Amino acid sequence: MPSPSFPLLAIDWGTSSLRGARIAADGQVLEQRSLARGILSVPAGGFEAALDEAFGDWRAQSALCLVSGMAGSRQGWIEAPYCPCPAGFAELAAQLAWVPQARSPVAIVPGLSTDRGGLPDVMRGEEVQIFGAMQWSGLSDGLFVLPGTHSKWATAEAGRVHGFRSFMTGELYALLSQHSILARTLNADAPFDEAAFVQGVTRARDAGGLLHHAFGARALTLFGRLDANRMASYLSGLVIGAELHGAAPRPDAPVVLIGSDTLTARYARALDVHGVASRRLGAEATWAGLHALARTLD
């Protein structure tokens, strides 16, 4: 196992995007770079070449490359394992997937898995963000929420993730807004309407469930109570509100939101409707997590 690990080349390689950073031993992010070069655009056997094309100059100056995200999936570079919860840095470090025959040390971070009553759940990439958020915020316990295509709600205790739940919120919103009958009654390019969003979040708290409330959105447009420019925000509030209704966060348990400014702002507003306080973190959580994992190796 290589040591020391710095300077570190930290990579977040997802389905549709590739992000990287050069990180010093003290955690300072020296440089960042982002490309639309997700794993689905890389041919079989082409991951090392793609990494060099994007970050070859940084790799030449780095002692180690740590990769998180979907690069460790079956469609990625090599398949990394899932660490069963509860898990912390020690478990991640022990199950790193070292890329064989790479021209310099490259390790892919394992994902996490959990099992609730015989129903398994998995994450890849989010685990690094959660551990990074712990480092960044100084919290070792709490509820960490990562909005996205498949949102994650993770519970941490004593610096370890004890379990989590996934919600297909972003994917469902895309399906409803692009491929359902609702797509004909909304303007996807309209600016965000906070009032319509809150109306959707509030509606999701009523009895009936998302399937009923989604059809209700169509009825609102038929009777002129919701126009196309407000519909997208209302629908966003409806699906996010349904997620919050299912997750049932407690008002006495503050939430740490991790993700893009746009999504975390919406979730913070939705949580506010539910009377739940929150704080927000962005990309810094990923780099803090990979830096802390590299320190664990050293």
UniProtKB/TrEMBL annotation:
Pfam families, per the entry: DGOK (PF05035)
Entry-linked InterPro entries: DGOK, DGOK_C, DGOK_N
The protein, known as: MFS transporter
Protein's organism: Pseudorhodoferax aquiterrae
